[in-house]
Structures are given as C-alpha cells and as structure tokens.
Design a protein that fits this description.
By secondary structure, the chain is of the alpha/beta class. It contains 5 helices and 8 strands. 37% of the residues lie in helices and 24% in strands. Strands 1, 2, 3, 4, 5 and 8 form a 6-stranded parallel sheet that branches. It has a two-stranded antiparallel ribbon with strand order 6-7.
Length: 187
C-alpha cells in the first residue's frame, strides 16, 4: 500500500512535497575565530530561506543533532593539520549509534588557522574524511570569492575572519550547502 502525505498550510492550500531540509552548522572554537566563521557559514546556509538551519557548538551537540540534519557544515580550528580533539572525540563517541544509519547526508568543512600555510586545507580534508566514513556526500567549491581566494576543500582563513574575502568564503560554503540541500532534499 502506497502512502501519500499531504500537508496543508494555514491558508488551506496543499504543500505536498514542499519539505524543508535541515542544515546543521557544527563547530569547535578555541580563540573564537572558528565560531565567527561558523556564524558566517550559518548566514550563507540561510540564504535561500528554504531550509531550517541550526548553529551549534560541538560542546552542546548530540547524536540527535546529526540524525536531525540532512546537510552539515563542520568547522574546527587547525590543530597540527587535523581537526580539534573535541570534534574528533564527538565523532568517535557517536560512531556506534550513527554508524551505517546516516548515509547520503551532505557535508562540507571550514577551518581557521594561525597563519597562511598553517594547515587549514589539511584540516578540512580530515573533517571531510570523518564525514565520508559516516557515509556523507562531501563537497568543496570551485568558486573564487576573490583573486586567488577559493575554497576547494572548504572555507579557510588565518585568524579572525574579518576581511571581505574571508567573510565571503564562509558565506559561500554555506550557500553551497543550502543549494545542495535544496537540490537533494527539498522536493
């Protein structure tokens, strides 16, 4: 037997199939720089208004938050070219509960670093590797937000994201997540 769900909005019109995707911007931050980046990613992920977007520090995250989301942007400060120990610990601890149950969600990464060449791209790759191990479909962006300023592996920035390029990079990766969530989850 085939079930059809029809939702009715407050005007009494059918909105069958017009469901919003859930996007989570999950971050860890030591100095506050990655938190600022997360806020800009959050802003970009809200750009279409077609999705429900939540901003959450890893300290407050649970496996329910990962189950809830269709798309995720994960941000971490660079720690010797890897994601932070708190972010890694979170994914390690929720592994048994989530393993094999969240395939097909969409993910991207962002990272702050102490200076150019500090390992943020490698940190993004380590985040993406964690997400791939859980079955996430991951992406970067080929867009340039300024001259020689791209986000192939995710949004990266040395220090606080105060420049226009850094802010635009964070917003752009959020906009890309919003786009892909719309494409794959909003029907």
């Amino acid at each position: 037997m085939k079930q059809i769900i029809i939702l009715i909005n407050i005007d009494g019109k059918s909105i069958k199939g017009n469901f919003m995707a859930n996007i989570l911007v999950l971050y860890d931050s030591n100095s506050g720089n990655t938190k600022k980046m997360a806020e800009y990613v959050f802003e970009g992920a809200n750009s279409s208004g077609n999705n429900v977007v939540k901003l959450l520090c890893v300290d407050d995250a649970t496996t329910e938050d990962i189950n809830w989301c269709d798309g995720i942007a994960v941000g971490s400060p660079t720690n010797m070219g890897l994601l932070s120990w708190k972010m890694k610990k979170f994914w390690d601890e929720c592994g048994n509960e989530l393993w094999g149950k969240i395939d097909g969600k969409i993910g991207c990464a962002f990272s702050s670093e102490g200076g150019w060449g500090g390992g943020a791209e490698i940190t993004c790759m380590s985040i993406l590797t964690v997400l791939m191990n859980f079955g996430f479909l991951v992406f970067g962006a080929t867009d340039y937000v300024a001259d020689k300023f791209t986000l192939h592996y995710g949004a990266t920035n040395p220090g606080s994201p105060d420049s226009k390029q850094a802010i635009d990079a964070c917003k752009r990766i959020g906009q890309k997540l919003d786009h892909w969530a719309n494409k794959y989850f909003n029907k």
